[in-house]
Here is the input.
Amino acid sequence: MKQLKRNKIGLYIGIAAALIVLVALYAVTGQEAFIRTTLSGLTLGSLFFLVAAGLTLIFGLMDVLNFAHGAMFMLGAYIGWQFYTNPTFIFGMLPAVLSLSFGLLLIPLIKPYLIALNLSEKLQKNLPKLLYVLAALAALVAFWQFDILGLAKTAMVAATVTNVGNPLAEISAQEPMARFWIRPLMLVISGLLLAVAVSKPGDKSQFAPREKIGKNLILPIVLLVSLIVSILVREQAPQIVLLMNGNLRFALSIVAAVLFGILFGAIIEITMIRPLYIRPFFIVLMTLGLSFVIRELVQLLWDPLAYQMSRPPLFATVGKAATSVGEWLRTGSSTINISGVIFPTYRLFVILLGVVMFIFVTVLMTRTRMGMIIRAGVQDPQMVEALGINVKQVFTLVFALGVALAALGGIGAAPFLPINPLMGDTYQMQGFITVVIGGMGSYVGAFVGALILGMARAFGDYYALKLSLSPAIAEASTVIIMIIVLLIKPRGLFGKKE
Amino acid sequence: MSGYIELPNTLLSVQGIDTYIGQFHILEGVSVDVPAGAITVLLGRNGAGKTTTLKSILGLTPPRTGKVIFEGVEIQGKRAFNIANMGIGYVPENRAIFKALSVLENLKLAERKKGDLERHESLIYGLFPDLKRLEKLPGDHLSGGQQQMLAVARALVPDNKLLLIDEPSEGLAPILIQEMMEAIRKLKETTTILLVEQNFIMASKLAERFVIIDDGRSVHSGLMSDLVLNEELVQQYLGASIKTRVKEAK
Here is the structure.
């Protein structure tokens, strides 16, 4: 009880200190500049939160420092931008992704039967190796002479200045259908071979319950249907998407980026991070290497250039600033007048996005069983497992959730930041500082830390400009804040005692 | 006596398991038979491998060789959550109460099916009435005794056929030890219990059977009533200081 009281007192002191700082800034800066800088700070803070929330959850639960988080933020921006500008690439690649995952998702279905097989020890050892090679060969056949780069360039063409008004002009010629069917088919086979190899046929020490086949069947069937649909609509879909209302298209590109984040995060966790949990240091090197690979691949696909994504119509009408939210929603004005300050409406949307995601994470963590498992797992994953909960599965879900939040941050930032292969790096750095300030593993800490950092950077930039100091002041300010916080509370503002 | 005789109504049978933690060979042939409906206690000096035996059964530190048979099914090598879901509850030595969760959430988390807690509410709050009052309190505000009760209560939420209870009396005040003993005795009516207990008096009053583990090996097993009379054996494996306590226990 004593501790509870002390925590509360600390909280009050913190709130009081924050208010004093804000009032002081208000007095020194003046009303107009204060409101503008605060709103900028909130925009930045919102993006920092989206990056830091994933980092802190992943670190808290699995002790994984994900150095590829910034690269995942950047990928989210690219995927969203692609979907919004010209989704030919995404719809072109979708059948490949779906067919490979379809094969892999059959694992729980076939595993009980594969384990029951009677194989000699030698065969048990060598069969998976052979299957891996065959799977790689099948995948190679599937992508043989497949022009991925050409497909990727379609959106770039649409993004060039001359084609702004007509994104449909340059959709590349499609492969003949007959040849195309072979590719997904080979990938399904490749996925199946992988699934068999991963199941370790004949290895009876494994455990695979057979009774839940009906439940295991749902996901593969859904995937199979969407695979067939994705093959059939792959030529029409990009045009349908491009002809729809711009706001709806933007909403869908957010969905696309988030779905991509979930899928990508799950794949990375299962294939690369899971085997390394016993060697935490290797995970740092692995994720760092992964971020380089992702960056180079993006440069290969879309060239080392910076792109500007056009803002969706709701935030695009240039001209007189809207005077109220109602007027903005009606006219789609690009700026809004907030008590005398002209502020871009899109940035308000980013602030809203951050707040909504904070509420989402709070509800998830405090109101759901999943959240309970995460909070318990942060302290003692072994005991959670001893209660009969599949902790590895929870790890995968949390990693996927974290990456999805980063990808959401990426697409959220895309309409007002230049999209380039390095765009995630700053946010990753600030994300780590946010996590340290807020306390490892605490999403509330990530939120508060993100707000503090966003404000520090915004006011740092403002004063650097005003007093003609080096703009590095703003960047240094976040590190200085981190040092001060660590001196007072070594575990961060909301860090728990071990 | 490191061999084993399978009893007719054996619920759990551990047969010659070897367990390594890192590169350390902790268990070098432990065999334990747990008959259904009774309390079996693991005895032995500190560091003998009692806790590791429990963890090996549950798959938290999987044994490298040997067999663990639960209800006629070999469970060694399975993942811990699968083993737990077969109906094994675990009360660890350090209690492992989730500090960020309230008492109620701690219990809810242990549910395997929806409504598990509701069905066993009367049993749990009957044994530990204090917990009802503390429902909303976060785990890190509980006293040691309250934490121990919550740890046992947590293992009662799902339908468990076997409870692995590690040192329930450790660090408890004498009056609480009494309460805990009562609770465990009541639990025996419905489940089977494998207990690790340093407190020889408590162990001798509760358990029907014992297994002595020494230096990673199971060296003796039998009826508790025989052990209490065998001062030599107790002195040899459990230390001289216990000798006087044996007399008390008698």
User: Anything to note?
Assistant: The longest helix of chain A spans residues 31-62.
